[in-house]
């Protein structure tokens, strides 16, 4: 058995949970191999160090004990998709020479506040194990973990060659922690703070930007750090960072300051503007023409984002850069199709485009006409409510599908959709790997035929042969899940909300999708029978989330009983609503570490 | 015990609800929708599933079978539509208030009605701060009641005495000008307008 740390696509046949003494793996006190074997292992290590893909590495580690050891010695990049799936001690014991770690914590529905605060995913236990084990750790990426200022301090002091820190959707830290990183990581190249929840009282704010000690900064992203930064210090930092390629600032940086920063760093490839209008505060007024000149001078720009507090007349200033843009994020800019047009018509090479639905179907038609190379599109709603007007619809979707045939990934929020439009997209966009459609009104049918949206999503799974990620919405019956189970053979991630009729729906999916890794369901009428139909598969999955379904204690306990390596968490954050039998929130994941010891009182592990 | 059923008004985001356990039959219907946020007792008749926010307007097809038979209890629908909070905060001009699980997921920019006014509450000596939605309260009495619930160890400390003695804890607030004042000295409506955040001192 290979005690694999997380892997995106572990098929059922490879994952054997029963311990097998014949096979090695980390953690065992095995006697050292004979000399000749040692030589072979050394040779193997020299070969394996060229292997990058973690799936290949996982396969290698299954060959035999010797290969498993050799692979463990040469793995530099460790990916742990669920911080509770394995204990830090065990990970560190097996992989002795890790330089880079990716660690993920809370389930994705935590982004929508379905996971109560203080649920877990604290970074400290990992840090405590990493610090002594990997003194040469260089890169760390944490997603949905809780990390305190003290943790950041300890991190900064524990790893003298530390280079890259990426924090995505994390919480628990503030500017004090950032200051520690800035000050003590002398070789820092990357500090990317992406959509974190940075708590800060004004009187506690620290001027972290002044503390940077590195001269090799390549990337600084802080577009959602809420507090104002020392702008002079930022400018000085940019000026002394010749390697800086990526800079994304928060909305406290005005257009005036932005222009100065751009002048200091004409070599930037990725730029996130702060406020792009008059309101930014300080920095002085900037003529649109001057701003445009700044964009013309930045010849290396391939990615633009930000545009918060946008004054629409400033937007055309980016036109000189448009022809080279591969990625444009206008999803914080409340603009109409008319305002989008003069900019987007220059973006012939655009591959990634994020936008607000305020541009409407008309705006999307212009995108479709120009951006022939588009691979990823995300359309976000301005008005995030169920009963808003909605400015994009099936019309926009069809236009995109006709114009952007190479589309691989789409996230589309709307209020009106038709099966025909979705089916058209499935036929036109054969490269689709990710299809996420959010019809914001719950249980909403095809707005023309009044039928459920079964046929549309059915067409997607049937026609898009490369699909690995799907999010469904609208009025859906069990039939839709039947299609998913029948055709979604490569599906790894499925998100379901307010859909289905009965346990059959869940059964179709669990029985039909062999590659399913992540299943997140909310407010759907799936009960114990549906849950139990996945028993054969849960060890192959990273997690299952079910909230506001029809689960009961009996079914959940049975799963826990029959699958001892599964952690079955009953999250009871509303004890006053508890009637003792219904399980309102269930989070299930495989683990080599058994039940965690840091579960808060509202989590009961069955 | 009296059952009070009410339909939500068509364009009204404000909540009306059942109130079985709490003997009060006051018209503080705005409070009920956020009960779970303030850990007050929820009437047992509440369904765990959510009811449509809008009352009469929605198409029939919009109602799912499971919702049609539910009592007219409207509650905040957490996390739907599924948009991450930085986006909710910033898109369309951006509210000053930071979104938390207690406020803001039920976006209130449709129709008339008061914006959720969430302010931070920190208690001296307690590491973790909380948030309270002031727009759901009509008086200092109600506010103190909520604070009592949030900081249960201080249960008996918040009685609102006119002369502020015999009170173990002081509730202060920061106003628009950055000054820290004692809560309770001015009319509720004025207080609501100027308060930025709360701090509880012992």
TrEMBL record, chain A:
Start-end of Basic and acidic residues biased regions: 9-20
Location of the protein in the cell: Nucleus
Limits of the COI1 F-box domain: 37-76
GO BP terms: auxin-activated signaling pathway; SCF-dependent proteasomal ubiquitin-dependent protein catabolic process
Predominant cellular place of this UniProt entry's protein: nucleus
Limits of the Transport inhibitor response domain: 97-142
SUPFAM superfamilies: F-box domain (SSF81383), RNI-like (SSF52047)
Gene Ontology CC: one annotated term: nucleus
Region ranges (Disordered): 1-36
Superkingdom of origin organism: Eukaryota
Keyword line: Auxin signaling pathway, Nucleus, Ubl conjugation pathway
InterPro entries (alphabetical): COI1_F-box, F-box-like_dom_sf, LRR_dom_sf, Transp_inhibit
Pathway info: Protein modification; protein ubiquitination
Database matches in Pfam families: F-box_5 (PF18511), Transp_inhibit (PF18791)
Oligomer and partners: Part of a SCF (SKP1-cullin-F-box) protein ligase complex. May interact with auxin and auxin-responsive proteins.
Protein name: Transport inhibitor response 1-like protein
Organism: Phoenix dactylifera
GN (gene name): LOC103701789
From TrEMBL, chain B:
PROSITE patterns: PB1
Annotated GO biological process: auxin-activated signaling pathway; regulation of DNA-templated transcription
Top-level lineage group: Eukaryota
Subcellular localization, as worded in the UniProt entry: Nucleus
Region annotation Disordered: where it falls in the sequence: 50-115
Record function comment: Aux/IAA proteins are short-lived transcriptional factors that function as repressors of early auxin response genes at low auxin concentrations.
This protein's GO CC annotations: nucleus
Signal peptide positions on this chain: none
Alphabetized InterPro entries for the sequence: AUX/IAA_dom, AUX_IAA, PB1-like
Subunit (UniProt): Homodimers and heterodimers.
Protein name: Auxin-responsive protein
Keywords: Auxin signaling pathway, Nucleus, Repressor, Transcription, Transcription regulation
UniProt KW Transcription keyword: yes
Family statement: Belongs to the Aux/IAA family.
Gene3D superfamilies: Phosphatidylinositol 3-kinase Catalytic Subunit, Chain A, domain 1
Domain (PB1): residue spans on this chain: 116-202
PANTHER family reported in the protein's UniProt record: AUXIN-RESPONSIVE PROTEIN IAA17, AUXIN-RESPONSIVE PROTEIN IAA29
């Amino acid at each position: 058995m290979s005690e694999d740390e997380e892997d995106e696509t572990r098929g059922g046949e490879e994952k054997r949970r029963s311990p097998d003494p014949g096979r090695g793996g980390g953690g065992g006190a095995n006697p050292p191999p004979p000399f000749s074997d040692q030589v072979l292992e050394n040779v193997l290590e020299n070969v394996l160090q060229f292997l990058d893909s973690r799936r290949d590495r996982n396969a290698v580690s299954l060959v035999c004990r010797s290969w498993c050891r050799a692979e463990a010695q040469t793995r530099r990049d460790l990916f742990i998709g669920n911080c509770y799936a394995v204990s830090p001690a065990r990970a560190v014991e097996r992989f002795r020479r890790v330089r880079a770690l990716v660690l993920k914590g809370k389930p994705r529905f935590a982004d929508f506040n379905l996971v109560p605060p203080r649920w877990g995913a604290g970074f400290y236990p990992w840090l405590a194990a990493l610090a002594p084990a990997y003194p040469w750790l260089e890169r760390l990426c944490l997603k949905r973990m809780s990390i305190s200022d003290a943790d950041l301090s300890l991190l900064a002091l524990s790893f003298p060659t530390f280079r890259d820190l990426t924090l995505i959707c994390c919480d628990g830290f503030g500017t004090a922690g950032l200051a520690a990183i800035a000050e003590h990581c002398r070789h820092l190249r990357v500090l990317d703070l992406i959509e974190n929840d940075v708590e800060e009282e004004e009187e506690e704010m620290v001027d972290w930007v002044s503390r940077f000690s590195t001269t090799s900064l390549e990337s600084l992203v802080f577009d959602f750090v809420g507090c104002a930064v020392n702008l002079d210090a930022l400018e000085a930092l940019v000026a002394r960072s010749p390697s800086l390629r990526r800079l994304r600032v928060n909305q406290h940086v005005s257009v005036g300051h932005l222009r100065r920063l751009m002048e200091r760093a004409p070599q930037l490839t990725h730029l996130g503007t702060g406020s792009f209008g008059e309101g930014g505060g300080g920095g002085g007024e900037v003529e649109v023409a001057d701003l445009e000149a700044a964009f013309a001078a930045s010849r290396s720009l391939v990615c633009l984002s930000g545009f918060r507090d946008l004054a629409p007349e400033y937007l055309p200033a980016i036109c000189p850069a448009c022809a080279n843009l591969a990625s444009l994020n206008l999803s914080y800019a409340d603009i109409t199709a008319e305002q989008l047009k003069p900019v987007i018509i220059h973006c012939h090479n655009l591959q990634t485009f994020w936008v607000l639905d305020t541009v409407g179907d008309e705006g999307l038609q212009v995108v479709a006409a120009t951006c022939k190379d588009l691979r990823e599109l995300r359309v976000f709603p301005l008005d995030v409510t169920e009963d808003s007007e909605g400015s994009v619809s099936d019309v926009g979707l069809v236009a995109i599908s006709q114009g952007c045939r190479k589309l691989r990934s789409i996230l589309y929020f709307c209020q009106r959709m038709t099966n025909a439009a979705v089916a058209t997209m499935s036929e036109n966009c054969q490269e689709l790997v990710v299809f996420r459609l959010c019809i914001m009104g719950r249980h909403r049918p095809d707005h023309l035929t009044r039928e459920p949206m079964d046929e549309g999503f059915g067409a997607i799974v049937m026609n898009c042969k490369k699909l690995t990620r799907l999010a469904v919405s609208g009025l859906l019956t069990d039939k839709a899940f039947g299609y998913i189970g029948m055709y979604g053979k490569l599906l790894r991630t499925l998100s379901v909300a307010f859909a289905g009729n009965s346990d059959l729906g869940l059964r179709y999916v669990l029985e039909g999708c062999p590659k399913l890794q992540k299943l997140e369901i909310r407010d759907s009428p799936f009960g114990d029978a549906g849950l139990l139909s996945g028993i054969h598969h849960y060890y192959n999955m990273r997690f299952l989330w079910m909230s506001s379904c029809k689960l009961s204690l009996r079914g959940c306990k049975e799963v826990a009983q029959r699958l001892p390596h599964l952690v079955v968490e009953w999250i009871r954050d509303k004890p006053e609503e508890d009637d003792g039998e219904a399980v309102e929130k269930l989070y299930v994941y495989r683990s080599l570490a058994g039940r965690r010891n840091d579960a808060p009182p509202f989590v009961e592990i069955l | 015990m009296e059952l009070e059923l009410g339909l939500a008004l068509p364009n009204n985001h404000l909540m009306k609800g059942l109130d079985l356990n709490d003997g009060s039959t006051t018209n503080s219907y705005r409070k009920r929708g956020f009960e779970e946020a303030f850990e007050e007792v929820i009437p047992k008749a509440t369904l765990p599933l959510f009811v449509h926010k809008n009352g009469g307007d929605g198409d029939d097809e919009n109602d799912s079978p499971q919702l049609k038979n539910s009592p007219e209890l409207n509650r905040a629908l957490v996390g739907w539509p599924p948009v991450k909070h930085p986006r909710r905060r910033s898109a369309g001009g951006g509210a000053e208030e930071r979104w938390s699980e207690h406020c803001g997921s039920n976006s209130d920019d449709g129709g008339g009605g008061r914006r959720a006014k969430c302010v931070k509450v920190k208690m001296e000596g307690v590491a973790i701060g909380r948030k309270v939605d002031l727009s759901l309260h009509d008086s200092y009495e109600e506010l103190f009641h909520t604070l009592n619930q949030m900081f249960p160890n201080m249960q008996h400390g918040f009685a609102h005495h006119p002369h502020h003695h015999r009170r173990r804890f002081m509730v202060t607030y920061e106003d628009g000008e950055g000054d820290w004042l004692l809560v309770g000295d001015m009319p509720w409506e004025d207080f609501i307008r100027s308060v930025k955040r709360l701090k509880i001192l012992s």
